From TrEMBL:
Keywords: Acetylation, Electron transport, Membrane, Mitochondrion, Mitochondrion inner membrane, Phosphoprotein, Respiratory chain, Transport, Ubiquinone. The keyword Nucleotide-binding does not apply. This is NADH dehydrogenase [ubiquinone] 1 beta subcomplex subunit 9. Accessory subunit of the mitochondrial membrane respiratory chain NADH dehydrogenase (Complex I), that is believed to be not involved in catalysis. Complex I functions in the transfer of electrons from NADH to the respiratory chain. The immediate electron acceptor for the enzyme is believed to be ubiquinone. Mammalian complex I is composed of 45 different subunits. Residues 13-70 form the Complex 1 LYR protein domain. It is found in: Mitochondrion inner membrane. The lineage of its organism: Eukaryota, Metazoa, Ecdysozoa, Arthropoda, Hexapoda. It comes from Cyphomyrmex costatus. One of its GO terms (cellular component) is mitochondrial inner membrane.
Length: 144
């Protein structure tokens, strides 16, 4: 299947994304904060130097050259955030349903008496609301 772009990016957006990727590349290579900030300032100076170019062909050429330069300097093992798709904790959040608390041991429930008392009260209120809203469900249960 062919790749269809979901959005069209303006030249300005492409330049901004290139700048961000280049700044992240600096973070991948340089770990000392003062050195990293210095390199980031030099990078920003390079981008600011060419921000007022009116010739679109030349601006596009500079963007392509910037992409090539970034590709040549990209880190072999870039830093990734833990929850990002390449991170170590990606998609590790598990959903624990509420009914699991019903299987707690009574001694465990005794450690949180107010919580479990309120929880039982809320469960009763929900059951009352449910059977008032759907009386046919109550009949089904009573028939069995």
């Amino acid at each position: 299947m062919a790749y269809l772009p979901s959005e069209l990016l303006s030249h300005q957006q492409k330049v901004c994304r290139l700048y961000k990727r280049a700044a992240r590349c600096i973070e991948d290579w340089i770990h000392k904060t003062p050195d990293r900030r210095y390199e980031a300032a030099l990078l920003r100076e390079r981008f600011d130097k060419n921000k007022d170019i009116k010739d679109f062909k030349y601006a596009k050429y500079l963007l392509e050259e910037g992409e090539k330069e970034l590709f040549s300097k990209i880190h072999y093992q870039p830093i990734s955030f833990p929850d990002s798709p390449t991170g170590v904790a990606y998609d590790r959040k598990s959903y624990v349903p509420d009914y699991v608390l019903d299987y707690w041991h009574p001694l465990e429930k005794a450690m949180y008496p107010k919580y479990f008392a309120r929880r039982e009260q809320m469960k009763d209120e929900y059951m009352k609301w449910y059977f008032e809203t759907y009386p046919e469900e109550k009949k089904k249960i009573d028939d069995h």
